[in-house]
C-alpha cells in the first residue's frame, strides 16, 4: 500500500504551521541538533549532535512561531507499535549475548505490556550492580536466554538502549539450567538451583517480589 512506502513524504498546513512527514525506522537520522530540536520519540547523541528515531513511525518536522529558534523533529506515535520505552522504564527482556564487558538483550515487555516492535539494549559491566563494580563478572551474572528485569538508563545511540540492573529488584528473574532440564529456582542473590538435578549456577538474581 502506498501508505507504507518508505519514500512517503507529505506536507500540509496546520494553523499556518508547516509539517513534513515521512516514514522512519529505529536509529534512522532525523536531523542535526544544531538546527533541529528533538521532540517526542526522538533522542539526541550530543557526541555527534545528531537526532535519531527510536521506533518505526512517521518523522515530523514542525515549524514553530517566530520566537522559537529551531524546528522540532519528532516521531509521531501509533497505537499499533505498543508501549514505548523511555528513561526510567522497567523492561522485561531476554539475554542474547554475554561478553566480558557487555550483556546484550532483546526486549519482551515494557512495564506490564508486551512490545510489538522489539528493541535491543546493553547492560554495561559498570551497571550490573551498585557496589563492588570492579569485581563484576558478566559470565557469572547472566547467560544467554536468561529473562531479566532491567531499567532504562538512556536511549543510548542508534544501535541499543543503555540499561541497568543495579538495584535489588532488577536482574535475572527466570532462566533454564545449563542442560535445559528445568527452570531454575533462586536460592540467594547470587545463585539459582535446578530443581531436578540440584545443580547450582551463579547469576545476579533479582529479589523475589513478595
From TrEMBL:
<dbReference type="InterPro" id="IPR019495">
    <property type="entry name" value="EXOSC1_C"/>
</dbReference>
<dbReference type="InterPro" id="IPR012340">
    <property type="entry name" value="NA-bd_OB-fold"/>
</dbReference>
<feature type="domain" description="Exosome complex component CSL4 C-terminal">
    <location>
        <begin position="112"/>
        <end position="155"/>
    </location>
</feature>
<dbReference type="GO" id="GO:0006396">
    <property type="term" value="P:RNA processing"/>
</dbReference>
<dbReference type="GO" id="GO:0003723">
    <property type="term" value="F:RNA binding"/>
</dbReference>
<dbReference type="InterPro" id="IPR039771">
    <property type="entry name" value="Csl4"/>
</dbReference>
<dbReference type="Pfam" id="PF10447">
    <property type="entry name" value="EXOSC1"/>
</dbReference>
<dbReference type="GO" id="GO:0005737">
    <property type="term" value="C:cytoplasm"/>
</dbReference>
<dbReference type="GO" id="GO:0005730">
    <property type="term" value="C:nucleolus"/>
</dbReference>
<dbReference type="GO" id="GO:0000176">
    <property type="term" value="C:nuclear exosome (RNase complex)"/>
</dbReference>
<protein>
    <submittedName>
        <fullName>Exosome complex component CSL4</fullName>
    </submittedName>
</protein>
<keyword id="KW-0271">Exosome</keyword>
<keyword id="KW-0963">Cytoplasm</keyword>
Amino acid at each position: 500500500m502506498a501508505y507504507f512506502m518508505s519514500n512517503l513524504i507529505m506536507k500540509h498546513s496546520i494553523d499556518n504551521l508547516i509539517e513534513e512527514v515521512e516514514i522512519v525506522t529505529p536509529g534512522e537520522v532525523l536531523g542535526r541538533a544544531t538546527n533541529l530540536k528533538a521532540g517526542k520519540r526522538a533522542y539526541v547523541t550530543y557526541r555527534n549532535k545528531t537526532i535519531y528515531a527510536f521506533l518505526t513511525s512517521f518523522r515530523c518536522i514542525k515549524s514553530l512561531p517566530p520566537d522559537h529558534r529551531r524546528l522540532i523533529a519528532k516521531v509521531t506515535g501509533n497505537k499499533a507499535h505498543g508501549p514505548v520505552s523511555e528513561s526510567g522504564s522497567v523492561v522485561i527482556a531476554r539475554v542474547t549475548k554475554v561478553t566480558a564487558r557487555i550483556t546484550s538483550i532483546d526486549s519482551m515487555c515494557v512495564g506490564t505490556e508486551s512490545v510489538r516492535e522489539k528493541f535491543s539494549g546493553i547492560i554495561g559491566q559498570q551497571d550490573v550492580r551498585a557496589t563492588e563494580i570492579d569485581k563484576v563478572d558478566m559470565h557469572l551474572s547472566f547467560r544467554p536466554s536468561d529473562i531479566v528485569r532491567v531499567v532504562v538508563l538512556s536511549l543510548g545511540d542508534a544501535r541499543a538502549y543503555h540499561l541497568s540492573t543495579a538495584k535489588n529488584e532488577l536482574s535475572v528473574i527466570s532462566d533454564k539450567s545449563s542442560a535445559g532440564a528445568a527452570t531454575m529456582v533462586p536460592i540467594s542473590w547470587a545463585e539459582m538451583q535446578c530443581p531436578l538435578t540440584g545443580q547450582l549456577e551463579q547469576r545476579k538474581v533479582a529479589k523475589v517480589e513478595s
